[in-house]
């Protein structure tokens, strides 16, 4: 039996801050004051400083002269780059998953889609968003490419704040559901050329939607 060591305080602070940034509880452009955080959490500033440096390495935080650590703004260039990478990695993962999955796996993925479609019919947005994430995660895990899974998880986390906002619209959710169903059917048919085309279009549309959402938010 493998016994995992207890997380260090710096690790706990890092994970807590990272989750708060990804979920939008700490907003883009907001300063993270080490002293205030230390006082509020009743801990020294050292683990906070270590956590902030790790977040800076991930691009979630940046250091601004005379200000300190600030939650990074997501730029259009960031979105363009991330989706270029996502297209390549998602195609690779889905092609691998398509050949790895058993009939039982395909049925499980179908049931997941049915549950998400039912949640959307009830306008249950949080469940729909979780369903989309579960659909993607199912395929990533079925690809049997753990390093790819880790890379994609970081990229998806970076855009989670904007992605969740974009999926709050009924039209966007409905289109995404249709696209996921189409991806599933093409995987079942083992239609690699058409699957590659649909995946590229699906992610390109997601990118466009997020860029439009960014433009909208910047004018509010």
From TrEMBL:
Keywords: DNA-binding, Transcription, Transcription regulation
InterPro entries hit by this protein: GntR_C, TF_FadR/GntR_C, Tscrpt_reg_HTH_GntR, WH-like_DNA-bd_sf, WH_DNA-bd_sf
This protein's record includes keyword NAD: no
Domain of life: Bacteria
GO MF annotations in UniProt: DNA binding; DNA-binding transcription factor activity
SUPFAM superfamilies: GntR ligand-binding domain-like, Winged helix' DNA-binding domain
HTH gntR-type domain segment(s): 7-74
Entry keyword annotation includes Chaperone: no
Gene3D superfamilies cross-referenced by the UniProt entry: GntR ligand-binding domain-like, Winged helix-like DNA-binding domain superfamily/Winged helix DNA-binding domain
PANTHER family: GLUCONATE OPERON TRANSCRIPTIONAL REPRESSOR (PTHR43537:SF24), TRANSCRIPTIONAL REGULATOR, GNTR FAMILY (PTHR43537)
Name the UniProt record assigns to this protein: Citrate catabolism transcriptional regulator
Organism: Agrilactobacillus composti DSM 18527 = JCM 14202
């Amino acid at each position: 039996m493998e016994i995992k060591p207890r997380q260090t305080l710096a690790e706990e602070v890092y994970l807590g801050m990272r989750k708060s940034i990804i979920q939008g509880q700490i907003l883009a452009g907001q300063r993270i004051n080490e002293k205030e955080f230390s006082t509020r959490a009743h801990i020294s500033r050292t683990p906070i400083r270590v956590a902030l440096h790790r977040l800076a390495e991930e691009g979630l935080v940046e250091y601004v002269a005379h200000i300190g650590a600030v939650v990074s703004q997501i730029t259009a260039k960031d979105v363009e780059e991330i989706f270029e990478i996502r297209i390549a990695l998602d195609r690779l993962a889905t092609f691998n998953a398509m050949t790895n999955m058993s009939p039982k796996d395909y049925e499980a993925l179908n049931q997941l889609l049915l549950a998400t479609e039912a949640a959307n019919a009830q306008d249950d947005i949080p469940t729909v968003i979780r369903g989309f994430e579960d659909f993607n995660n199912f395929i990533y895990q079925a690809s049997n490419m753990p390093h790819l899974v880790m890379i994609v998880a970081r990229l998806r986390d970076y855009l989670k704040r904007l992605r969740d906002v974009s999926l709050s619209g009924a039209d966007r959710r409905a289109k995404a559901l249709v696209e996921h169903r189409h991806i599933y059917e093409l995987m079942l048919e083992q239609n690699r050329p058409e699957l590659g085309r649909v995946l590229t279009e699906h992610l390109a549309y997601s990118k466009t939607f997020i860029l439009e959402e960014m433009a909208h938010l910047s004018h509010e």
